[in-house]
Amino acid sequence: MAAGLATWLPFARAAAVGWLPLAQQPLPPAPGVKTSRGDEVLVVNVSGRRFETWKNTLDRYPDTLLGSSEKEFFYDADSGEYFFDRDPDMFRHVLNFYRTGRLHCPRQECIQAFDEELAFYGLVPELVGDCCLEEYRDRKKENAERLAEDEEAEQAGDGPALPAGSSLRQRLWRAFENPHTSTAALVFYYVTGFFIAVSVIANVVETIPCRGAARRSSREQPCGERFPQAFFCMDTACVLIFTGEYLLRLFAAPSRCRFLRSVMSLIDVVAILPYYIGLLVPKNDDVSGAFVTLRVFRVFRIFKFSRHSQGLRILGYTLKSCASELGFLLFSLTMAIIIFATVMFYAEKGTNKTNFTSIPAAFWYTIVTMTTLGYGDMVPSTIAGKIFGSICSLSGVLVIALPVPVIVSNFSRIYHQNQRADKRRAQQKVRLARIRLAKSGTTNAFLQYKQNGGLEDSSSGEEQALCVRTRSAFEQQHHHLLHCLEKTTCHEFTDELTFSQALGAVSPGGRTSRSTSVSSQPMGHGSLLSSCCPRRAKRRAIRLANSTASVSRGSMQELDMLAGLRRSPAPQSRSSLNAKPHDSLDLNCDSRDFVAAIISIPTPPANTPDESQPSSPGGGSRAGSTLRNSSLGTPCLFPETVKISSL
Amino acid sequence: MRCCLVKWILSSTAPQGSDSSDGELELSAVRHQPEGLDQLQAQTKFTKKELQSLYRGFKNECPTGLVDEDTFKLIYAQFFPQGDATTYAHFLFNAFDADGNGAIHFEDFVVGLSILLRGTVHEKLKWAFNLYDINKDGYITKEEMLAIMKSIYDMMGRHTYPILREDTPAEHVERFFQKMDRNQDGVVTIEEFLETCQKDENIMSSMQLFENVI
């Protein structure tokens, strides 16, 4: 209910004159809102600073402190003003909310203080306008995190607070994940790091040709073949340590399946597997060729360093998130390579003894040229080839040099954006939920107002006053407007549940009736005429039936009916306040079978005023609170509470 | 020559939207000030205080003093969250926009309200006729009525009881024409409309409904 709506409501209501000639039923009387005594100026004194505003401005939000009668508690009769002993600077924002409908968050004030003021004046933090919402949430989260960190630091300072009954597994896992927790874990961390380094260096060194002591051998051997035992021992030691570490991690992992699938464990496995395969494979010549290839995988041990280095992990993550950009670069490069390779091939086709034997062979030339490497192993000899070759190298500069800085800047941008995008998505959900809530709140308020029988023309004035007293003037008038629309079109607003139930009841052609009572004419598909009179009688009949069911707790059948009816007619008009005993239960045309079944119970309704009263104010007060979050639960709550009060 | 090439490249990729942004600037600079309070008081049947409070609300909502059709549709839609009020709002907008310039300013607003709230029954009926007569030619045809009726039923939304069918608006239009169209010539003139409405008790009695809106 924004400020804007209150201004435009009289306009919308006046425009309802346009429905008058079309209405097939008489329109309901307008709510007796006491004519405004003219707008008056209120003075609000907040710690000495006087704010003056129209009373109407404050009345726009009736469920806040200033908009409701709660402010009367702060009224000072001597000075004729409302005195609040609060921060005047913050009050400025609160008052502006009433004026403009948007709550802004002050930049230079503490978020905590702002929250407290909002809580005092009855404003929900969700009311913060979109312009300030993101910042408000950021600051709040920052605050909360800082407080949480302080708490954690306090706790951690007391000592390594391990839960008392932690098993060996949990302690082990904690040691693995957080090497700084205990000395042993730290030692282990450094030892594994050392051995990874040793293993990698050994892999590198064993391929260096070393000059043996005996210079007689003409062929230089790589070190690995000169000292096979030494390297083999080192390799074994490293692999043993890595295997031990892997098995320990596997044992300590809280969720073994997840651990097995994680990237780090895969790297571990790939790092140690070649060794074992090498052990198992016999030393044949033909197989050992394949075995040699496996040794390449030993280089993956270097990736084990990523457990020791935070930066490497971040790099891996950003590469993953930049995959689309990299993919695009690759794609455009491939396109360019294919184009230029084709062109070069056909340009150089004529020459004999040319290197450009096929298009794939020209790929190498194109790549080397585009990346401005220019090895010179393949050069064009024809003039056309040289021209295209130069175009190729020029475009290579563009194609490669341009995206690379873009990707580099993408790294940082995407990283920050990822964080912000998650935040925004969460806020978007909240925003949409707010809008949906406001919408459904208005509709639900009206539907519940109808449930309370507030639309009954011939109700006793007292009881109606009881139902509707808790609604604001705005709501009364808005509901009257919606009611007028209903009368004009001879259709009623319902909620989704009833609507889908009604749909369900229509298509199979009605449920099987459980009694052999007065069943009307057979219902056809076309008999759902919107004829007004039988509908009204049927509504009263359902209401009647509910009251009878509530009085006579007899047969299971009735209770079943009630259970079945609990959902569907509940939104229509459940309260039996004003059912007159002498209503003619005349169901001519479209009756539903379950209704007919209930009408067969001829007990007169015993509606007592005190039975009716508990249900209505509860419903009425709920109709009034549309801004509060509690209204979220209202549609669900209402049938339950009603059931309790009636049974 | 290279700078010419560069300029050509830049100009060809320059944003083409510069015209529209100028147009936007123009629109936002347009403001409307209403006539004086005394003149408005003479034209309408509101008291000075009522006019003041109306204008305060209006100015708060539309600082430029004009309501264009989209804003109007948005506002009106908020009153009928279950259905789609845009078509009816369009018709209403045209009914209020007396000079047809695409925007409602305060005088239109207040003159319209004056007729609806403080006018005689005759004036109100004439206003309603003007609303239904979409092309303002003095006759309500069945197509116009059908359009109006459909837009009203659209406002109800999907979830109604009893369920809205496809031909409900058409049936309603038929009933309306049967009632109103005396000489059965397929159109309703203002005289027929006034005559029939004045004979209908329901309509007459509900005319007083909205008088205490302000």
TrEMBL record, chain A:
It comes from the Eukaryota. One of its GO terms (cellular component) is postsynaptic membrane. The keyword Membrane applies. Residues 506-522 have a biased composition (Low complexity). Pfam families: BTB_2 (PF02214), DUF3399 (PF11879), Ion_trans (PF00520), Shal-type (PF11601). The keyword Transmembrane applies. Residues 40-139 form the BTB domain. Its main location: membrane. It is a multi-pass membrane protein. Signal peptide: none annotated. One of its GO terms (molecular function) is A-type (transient outward) potassium channel activity. Keywords: Ion channel, Ion transport, Membrane, Potassium, Potassium channel, Potassium transport, Transmembrane, Transmembrane helix, Transport, Voltage-gated channel. GO terms for biological process: action potential; protein homooligomerization. The chain crosses the membrane at residues 187-205, 259-281, 326-347, 359-375, 387-408. Residues 144-163, 506-530, 601-634 are annotated as: Disordered. It is found in: Membrane. Belongs to the potassium channel family. D (Shal) (TC 1.A.1.2) subfamily. Kv4.1/KCND1 sub-subfamily. Component of heteromultimeric potassium channels. Identified in potassium channel complexes containing KCND1, KCND2, KCND3, KCNIP1, KCNIP2, KCNIP3, KCNIP4, DPP6 and DPP10. This is A-type voltage-gated potassium channel KCND1. It comes from Rhinopithecus bieti.
Automatic annotation (TrEMBL), chain B:
GO terms for cellular component: nucleus; voltage-gated potassium channel complex. GO terms for molecular function: calcium ion binding; DNA-binding transcription repressor activity, RNA polymerase II-specific; potassium channel activity; potassium channel regulator activity; RNA polymerase II cis-regulatory region sequence-specific DNA binding. The keyword Calcium applies. GO terms for biological process: regulation of potassium ion transmembrane transport. It is found in: Cell membrane. Residues 84-119, 120-155, 168-203 form the EF-hand domain. Keywords: Calcium, Cell membrane, Ion channel, Ion transport, Membrane, Metal-binding, Potassium, Potassium channel, Potassium transport, Repeat, Transport, Voltage-gated channel. InterPro entries: EF-hand-dom_pair (IPR011992), EF_Hand_1_Ca_BS (IPR018247), EF_hand_dom (IPR002048), Recoverin (IPR028846). It comes from the Eukaryota. Belongs to the recoverin family. This is Potassium voltage-gated channel interacting protein 3. It comes from Rhinopithecus bieti (Black snub-nosed monkey). The gene is KCNIP3.
